């Protein structure tokens, strides 16, 4: 004891003289290990199902080896392709017009493509950036064995598109698997012959417009859910538990029915021969020929998504409102505030964390929403996610889909960061 | 009650009733008048309707029947923010998103007061509760006692004439509670504020108030200054609720002026003062304060009735001795004696005779 007193300034030790820190670490290590083992399955699950795919997606958005590598489906053997052409591109700077050696390299590569049965793959990669190029490759590869020098003339005889400088620019970019061209495409941009970034033709600009529309509609939907959810959440919070439970069930009902059922029921309601229009026409408010177009446009998307996302706003709001003691508002009133002032200056500020949480939740869900706009959005109610799906399923341009998705992810992270700076993520209250 | 006339009453409840559900009356026929500057406490067990009365006065609940007058004017139709009543809540109700200074500034801002005047009043208000250095803190950074001081300062800063406090010290520990009890009464008297204070703690009620209204079952059971309340309880509920009390049950045998004879259920006969009994044959519960019980024959009146008692337990409490006796069939009869040099210390098992002055033994309702 006196020892310990004398060494008071030095390291603290346990009764048998071991350093206190060490002893504590040893005592806790067992508990820590056990806790880690408990979360291990979840950690592995998240790594496998979330982190890895996102990493894959990010890689795919900047990496496409369709023009550089052939993988045999059966054996899995990888063979580099277009190696001769790549050599020529290395030796000659961008902008050099293709000469005879260039065409000779191309012809040799086409022969190799034919042997590997890979002209479609290479053509598809070029086709992403220059539509119509796929058939160029398949056609040329079919006749590749019969090509005779001079190759330039031979290829141009086959199809004069082989002389298109744009084609050579795209092949040069594609000859390296890593490229930023998909991001450029996702932002309606492309490269000119010198490799400078330019906008694509006006009539082909879709993505920026769609990003803007997605942003606008998501903000609108977030705002609408907020306006609708705030009074409901307040009512839920102040009603006696008996009544509020019933109301809560009504709010949660959408959670318990399939998304498709809900969306379809909106279609039943809103289409031009639907319940709402029939009722309005039946009551004589609308003429039969003036039926409202509430479906297959932006209005349909907004209405259906606002309804579907409403609970995600109500719940965080409810969870901040429930614990707010009524005595705050009473105190404000007794101090001389009108009910509006008491709401504005005392009640509302205390619900801000819930508004932030709900808005963030709804906005992020809305930005990535796919099925509802696909069903009720028509042509101008589509969101960016519908285009991502299109590139995943129809055009099979996965790299572009990945670039679009990565931009979406980046945008959301920026918003999240902004939210953290402005409101503080610690203030987020989800329940 | 008769000594304050309704005409000069600052606060008046007239035949007020309140029901929340239309089935039960939470407040049944409340009549109460308060002169300006009085410190009145509503004391009663939980659920007796105290908060409801306060909320009706503040305007957050409406009276189902009857009228509430403030300064002679009915206030049933005045909204809460126009009543100019300061309120202190049990949970303090300090706005968590505002600093202490902003909390105090709030009532002044909504009254449209200029910045310099506000700041001066805030500073003065904080000084009054010894919290001058805390203007920039958040409520969450303060201890419970400090928060309650701020809540008090906020309720006073706009100089209301009437302040309502609903169990403001209920969440604090004993020592802090006593300090704040003193500070609150001191401030109320210094500023000449009329105060309605709600508590379920009888010591608090006795030490702070000019008058105490004892609530039970939606009625005022007794309204009197603390000393009268303690020494002259008007019914069994008040006698039991205020202070420590010995109760013996029996039947009235004889009434002669302000003296009556009660035969206890165990058969013994005692003298008592008839307070809440009407006629011979009524059942009664007599009440005697533990410090008014005598076992020293020489201090009793000539010919006074006495009871046989057996000492069960002697508890030494420092300043007093607390002795538990078996008397007339009950064994929680308490006697308190002062720790004086000549005081006899009873031993368990000892047989004694106890008695009291008839006026200290009150025959109340059974
Ligand atoms: N808002 C309310 N709705 C319904 N009943 C209430 C309400 N407030 C209080 N009560 C009931 O009224 C009675 C008196 O309550 P209250 O005035 O709070 O008593 P106290 O403050 O004396 O504890 C209780 O039985 C309580 O359940
Ligand atoms: Mg209460």
TrEMBL record, chain A:
Main location as per UniProt: membrane
Topology in membrane: Multi-pass membrane protein
Keyword Membrane: yes
Keyword Transmembrane attributed: yes
Pfam families attached to this UniProt entry: BPD_transp_1 (PF00528)
Keywords for this protein: Cell membrane, Membrane, Transmembrane, Transmembrane helix, Transport
Spans through the membrane: 35-54, 214-237, 243-261, 299-318, 355-376, 396-419
Compartments it resides in: Cell membrane
Annotated GO biological process: transmembrane transport
Top-level taxon of origin: Bacteria
Record GO cellular component, one term: plasma membrane
Domain ABC transmembrane type-1: 211-419
Record-given protein name: Putative spermidine/putrescine transport system permease protein
Species of the source: Thalassovita taeanensis
Automatic annotation (TrEMBL), chain B:
Catalytic activity as recorded in UniProt: ATP + H2O + polyamine-[polyamine-binding protein]Side 1 = ADP + phosphate + polyamineSide 2 + [polyamine-binding protein]Side 1
One Pfam short name: ABC_tran
ABC transporter domain: residues covered: 11-242
GO terms, molecular function: ABC-type polyamine transporter activity; ATP binding; ATP hydrolysis activity
Gene Ontology cellular component list: ATP-binding cassette (ABC) transporter complex
UniProt xrefs under InterPro entries: AAA+_ATPase, ABC_SmlMolc_Importer, ABC_transporter-like_ATP-bd, ABC_transporter-like_CS, Mo/tungstate-bd_C_term_dom, P-loop_NTPase, PotA-like, Transp-assoc_OB_typ2
Enzyme Commission numbers on file: 7.6.2.11
Keyword ATP-binding attached: yes
UniProt keyword terms in alphabetical order: ATP-binding, Cell membrane, Membrane, Nucleotide-binding, Translocase, Transport
Subunit structure: The complex is composed of two ATP-binding proteins (PotA), two transmembrane proteins (PotB and PotC) and a solute-binding protein (PotD).
NCBIfam families recorded: potA
Family to which this protein belongs: Belongs to the ABC transporter superfamily. Spermidine/putrescine importer (TC 3.A.1.11.1) family.
Function as written in the Swiss-Prot or TrEMBL entry: Part of the ABC transporter complex PotABCD involved in spermidine/putrescine import. Responsible for energy coupling to the transport system.
PANTHER family per UniProt: SPERMIDINE/PUTRESCINE IMPORT ATP-BINDING PROTEIN POTA, SPERMIDINE_PUTRESCINE IMPORT ATP-BINDING PROTEIN POTA
Protein name per UniProt: Spermidine/putrescine import ATP-binding protein PotA
Native organism: Thalassovita taeanensis
Lineage, broadest ranks: Bacteria, Pseudomonadati, Pseudomonadota, Alphaproteobacteria, Rhodobacterales
Gene coding for it: potA
